[in-house]
Amino acid sequence: MKPVHIALAIMVAVIWGIAFVVSRIGLDVYSAPQLTALRFIVASIAVLWLPRPQVPWSTLVAIGLTVFTGQFLLQFFGIAGGMPAGLTAVVVQTQALFTVLFAALALGDKPNLQQVTGIVIAFIGLVMIGGTLSASIPLAAFMLTLGSAVSWAVGNVLIKRLPKINMLNLMAWASLVPPLPAFAVSLLIGDSRSIWTALVHAPLRGIIAPVYLGLVASVLAYAIWGNLLQRYSAGAVAPFALLAPVVGAIASAMVYGERFGPARLAGMACMLAGLAVAIVRRRSTNVSRVGHSEIPMPRPPRGVVHDRD
């Protein structure tokens, strides 16, 4: 990957890491479906000036239901059901592993040995961090959060199958999908307050939370992420998301005063080491034929797609 794309991938991980703490703040004000609806009502405002991407409506709806609706409804219900923000950040980022698996099965986009090794090392770090967290977590909340990761991974594969399109436009228009099913779920579970009542009585943090989640963590971050998935293999891009739990843990420490023991710090270091292994570029050359001559050309790591600019 080019240095600029590595920097963008790291920036996305930082945005998503902070979003776990912001989500916890938002869920102190709204129910899970209400926060989901508000997040994507804010995100969908961008469709007023962004043209609809040239993809079928069925594809647009499928991406909206997986990357956005399924992921965040399940994630917010998990947090509301007892999952701490730190553990949620860890479990949700297993999407990196599901993404690589689903891309290999559905697209034949198989990671190379180096990328697999890096992902395994990073996953060991995730397990180490998870082992330091409280075991008194409701199983249902844990499974909801795991389902969030699966939904996100399915959406990643759907995005990867698309032709090259403007990802900012796609993320904005896909944001039109979640509010309707979120409102339906809100009615189904019988929220004690309407979303409008919650908004009217919301403190300042209750206004900032959906704005950050909608504009920054949804439209901006997912537009960058989707663009990277189109440029490179899933095995090259997905490991960067493993940085989000580290950022989430640091943000949680700053906001909630959470402290880290040696085991959790070791897990974070293991994750960073795994990421380094997964993205380090091996130097080698291959040969490309032009007419009857042979011209040596740089070869990226196996499994990485050439830039299509």
Can you give keywords for this protein?
single chain, 309 residues, mainly alpha, two-stranded antiparallel ribbon, 14 helices, 2 strands, disordered C terminus
Main β-sheet: number of strands, strand sense, barrel status? 2 strands, antiparallel
Helix content: 55-70%
Give the integer mean of the pLDDT values. Answer: 81
Specify the overall morphology: globular
H/E element sequence: HHHHHHHHHHHHHHEE
Number of helices: 14
Give the end-to-end Cα distance, rounded to a whole number of Å: 14 Å
Give the domain tally: 1
Q: If strands are numbered along the chain, what order do they take across the biggest sheet?
A: 1-2
As a whole number of angstroms, the C-alpha radius of gyration is: 20 Å
Helix/strand class:
mainly alpha
Instruction: Tell me the β content.
Output: under 5%
Produce a short descriptive summary:
With 309 residues, this protein is mainly α.
Compile the SSE list and pairings:
Blueprint (H helix, E strand, L loop, with lengths): L2 H24 L5 H13 L12 H24 L4 H8 L2 H13 L5 H18 L8 H22 L6 H8 L4 H11 L5 H6 L3 H28 L2 H4 L6 H13 L5 H18 L5 E6 L2 E6 L11
Antiparallel strand pairs: 1-2
Helix pairs in contact: 1-4, 1-11, 1-13, 2-3, 2-9, 2-11, 3-7, 3-8, 4-13, 5-7, 6-14, 8-11
Structural account:
This protein is mainly alpha-helical and 309 residues long. The protein has one domain. The protein is 68% helix and 4% strand. It has 14 helices and 2 strands. Strands 1-2 form a two-stranded antiparallel sheet. The chain starts with a helix and ends in an 11-residue tail after the last strand. The C terminus is likely disordered.
